[in-house]
Amino acid sequence: MAIKIIGWVLLLGTAGFFLGKFIKHKSLYPFLPFRHDFRKRRDSFRLVMALMDRIKARVIVETGTSREGLKGAKSNGAATIVFGTWAKANNAHVHSVDISPKSIANAEKEVIRQDLADYVSLHTSDSIAFLKTFNESVDLLYLDSYDYSDDPEVQLKSQEHHLGEFKAIEAKLHDNTLVLIDDCDLPNGGKGKLVIAYMKERGWKIIYEGYQVLLVRDSFSY
């Protein structure tokens, strides 16, 4: 009897463990295969893609490319592939810029693997320099470049860099541009601390706030 009870306890414990993992798993299925867990970014990705549908977005600009491809869905978000897949379905185009040749090379492999080469352009450059010369109107700006850390000095440099990115491309943003900023729910305000404050002073408002923050202009309409 005791052995049976122990067996049931172990069985229930195992079932509970896997049920817990299933509940925490947040996929973008059927948009992308269920096995990819986007966890803390899933809801914001869903929202921004729904809004891109409504504004008929055509030009997406991303700073910081997906160096791990879909393998990094849970840790880094794999936004290059997420937005590239959306672009393929909606006749749009993604421009992803990263200063690291290695990151660009890794992203390129995944872009090709996912058959997105016609919809994603990868640029090896300092992101601010790239944005200053970008000459198209931007429908979605996704800021996720300078890596954040526990070091206060690195945190400030990352925050200043993201502010610099926004200022560099600001003139190319229109009334219905969406701006999504990654890694915001982190110590000392995350990557978006300075740029969000700057934007709010200039007629932008937050419509989603979590690990990522999504902003639109006060005049946003669709």
Automatic annotation (TrEMBL):
Listed Pfam families: Methyltransf_24 (PF13578)
Membrane spanning residue stretches: 6-23
Molecular function per GO: methyltransferase activity
Entry EC no(s): 2.1.1.-
GO annotation (BP), single: methylation
InterPro entries in the record: SAM-dependent_MTases_sf (IPR029063)
Alphabetized Gene3D superfamilies for the sequence: Vaccinia Virus protein VP39 (3.40.50.150)
Species for this entry: Lentiprolixibacter aurantiacus
Protein name: Class I SAM-dependent methyltransferase
Key words of the record: Membrane, Methyltransferase, Transferase, Transmembrane, Transmembrane helix
SUPFAM superfamilies: S-adenosyl-L-methionine-dependent methyltransferases
